């Protein structure tokens, strides 16, 4: 198997894992404070990451990598989880998932700015078309219906795109799982203290569903998914493999309908199919 194919396979596994993040977050914030959810998932994943790094005797990153690891931590450990958790207080997970269609464009932009990649002009046409479909869908739903939720989701996309590109760039030197583990460990002291500070006054009111959702976003969304995702981006190219995120709305909408009984409209399905169709063209012209 060549490096590019391996990158797409690893990237797809990562996307499949991430597709459950927003539905799980939606379930969790019904009973848990969004800030507590954000810091708790990071603290739990950070503790597991520290154990992995110690078990495999990984050396400390170079001082020059500290800035990039902080950017990863702010983007995918804190920024994206917190902003999406806050957004999901205003919008359904099915609605927010469609915004994930903007992530390939954001990731590709940061791949150029931070990763030094240079996709061909046709790549940008396909990527912009996919993003335009997503944005058009959001507007037809009525941005005024929940401007706070939509703006929070857009902010989440920007910081996540930066975190993805920066982490993938580092993965070429440190390894995919090492990057997310070090970013989590860097965040662990602050996240641990904030977890204790924001702990619910009574845990008896929190049902099993919320705890299961917290476990999922801690173990899979915050840790295991990145093992595959960063490795895939490093192997197949950040801009190219990043287009696989266009599959995430489709998978996420299916989970939202299955687990949360949320209505999935025809417009959602049509928009998702249209945006997925753009990935083939974008992949062809990514390099």
From TrEMBL:
Answer yes or no on keyword Transmembrane helix.
yes
What keywords sit in the KW lines? Membrane, Transmembrane, Transmembrane helix
Give its localization.
Answer: Membrane
Q: Name one GO cellular component term.
A: membrane
Q: Domain named EamA: which ranges?
A: 7-132, 149-280
Protein topology in the membrane: Multi-pass membrane protein
Question: Major place of localization?
Answer: membrane
Q: Where are the transmembrane segments?
A: 7-29, 35-56, 68-88, 94-113, 122-139, 151-167, 179-199, 211-230, 237-260, 266-286
Highest rank taxon of the organism:
Bacteria
Q: Which family does it belong to?
A: Belongs to the EamA transporter family.
Name of the featured protein = DMT family transporter
């Amino acid at each position: 198997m060549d490096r590019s194919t391996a990158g797409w396979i690893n990237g797809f596994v990562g996307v499949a894992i991430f597709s459950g993040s927003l539905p799980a977050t939606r379930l969790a914030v019904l009973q848990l404070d969004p800030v507590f959810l954000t810091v708790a998932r990071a603290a739990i994943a950070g503790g597991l990451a520290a154990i992995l790094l110690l078990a495999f005797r990984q050396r400390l990153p170079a001082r020059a990598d500290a800035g990039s690891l902080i950017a990863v931590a702010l983007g995918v450990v804190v920024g994206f989880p917190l902003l999406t958790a806050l957004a999901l207080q205003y919008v359904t997970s099915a609605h927010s998932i469609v915004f994930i269609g903007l992530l390939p464009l954001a990731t590709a932009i940061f791949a150029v700015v931070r990763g030094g990649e240079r996709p061909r002009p046709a790549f940008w046409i396909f990527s912009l078309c996919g993003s335009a479909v997503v944005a058009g869908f959001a507007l037809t739903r009525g941005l005024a219906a929940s401007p706070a939720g939509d703006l929070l989701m857009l902010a989440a996309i920007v910081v996540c795109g930066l975190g993805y590109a920066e982490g993938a760039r580092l993965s070429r030197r440190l390894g995919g799982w090492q990057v997310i583990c070090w970013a989590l460990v860097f965040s662990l002291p602050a996240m641990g203290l904030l977890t204790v500070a924001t702990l619910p006054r009574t845990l008896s009111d929190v049902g099993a569903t919320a705890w299961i959702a917290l476990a999922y976003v801690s173990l899979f969304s915050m840790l295991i998914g990145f093992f595959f995702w960063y490795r895939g981006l490093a192997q197949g190219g950040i801009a190219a493999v990043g287009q696989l995120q266009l599959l995430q709305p489709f998978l996420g909408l299916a989970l939202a309908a299955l687990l949360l009984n949320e209505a999935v409209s025809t417009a959602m399905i049509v928009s998702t199919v249209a945006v997925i169709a753009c990935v083939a063209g974008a992949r062809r012209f990514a390099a």
